[in-house]
Amino acid sequence: MNEHQGFSVAGIPFVGFCLVLAAIGVWLVVGAIHGQPDAPPVVPLFGGVLLIAIDAFLLKGFFQVAPNEGQVLQLFGKYAGSVRTEGLRWTNPFCSRRRISLRVRNFESGKLKVNDSDGNPIEIAAVVVWQVIDTAEAVFCVDDYENFVHIQSESALRQMAQSYPYDAHDDGKPSLRSHGEVINSHLRDEIQARLGKAGVQVVEARISHLAYAQEIAQAMLQRQQAGAIIAARTRIVEGAVSMVGMALEQLRAQGVVELDQERKATMVSNLLVVLCGERGTQPVLNTGTLY
């Protein structure tokens, strides 16, 4: 069921029509009460009362439409269209009306505990920004569209979280922690696929909370620390090897000293210890000869 324009007219001109109708009815009633010499008094009295009753019934057709709001009209159980024109409107008094907000809304899901693609338990939550774009589908295709948005968004979040690892073990594979734009785009598409049938458009969806579950958080922290230590050590060793090579090359180029292979190996070992060690070195002064 798709939304279409419902019957309504501008309310201000119709107010004038109702006032004229009421004035005629009151005039007939007052004339009948005071007596009419050329006509039976019951005829204008009945006509006046009938006009006033019709006028009171017509007043039920007035309603207001606020900015970014729609009114869904239903006539005897059948969808009669939607009205989005702002201001005072009038429609068939037999139509029932339901107000639907078209404003942009958002909500934050609760912290969900799910397993990532590696099987690690994680906690994840998301913020979803959405709005109704089809009032007919929002009212008639689902029972409670707001509750439907919340439940389906959490379901999509669970599905998305199970498709990626928390941390990337391969540089070419996206992960929940390192590829934010890819993850948010996937999450938005997953939610939109579920909410399209409810006349809802997902404006934005973003991860608001991401962490390992409490039972493995300490172990994963140690693993991250170990990875960071290994990466730092790798950079230190690369820099130390480069500095040792540069030192030997400058000693040879400037003719400071000539070293055989055994002495070069000893010097390389000492320099690597000095450059890669965590503690400050204690210098040893050699006052004897080199050999």
Describe this protein's structure:
By secondary structure, the chain is an alpha+beta fold. The protein is built from seven helices and ten strands. The chain has helices at 11-34, 42-58, 135-140, 145-161, 180-195, 214-254, 261-276, and strands spanning 9-10, 62-65, 69-75, 78-83, 87-90, 95-101, 105-108, 112-115, 121-132, 200-212. Strands 7, 8, 9 and 10 form a four-stranded antiparallel sheet that branches. The chain has a three-stranded antiparallel sheet with strand order 1-5-2. Strands 4-3-6 form a three-stranded antiparallel sheet. Strand 3 and strand 4 (78-83) form a beta hairpin. Helix 4 (145-161) crosses helix 5 (180-195). The longest helix is centred in the last third of the chain and has 41 residues, at 214-254. The radius of gyration is 40 Å and the shape is rod-shaped. The N and C termini lie far apart (97 Å). 19% of the residues are buried.
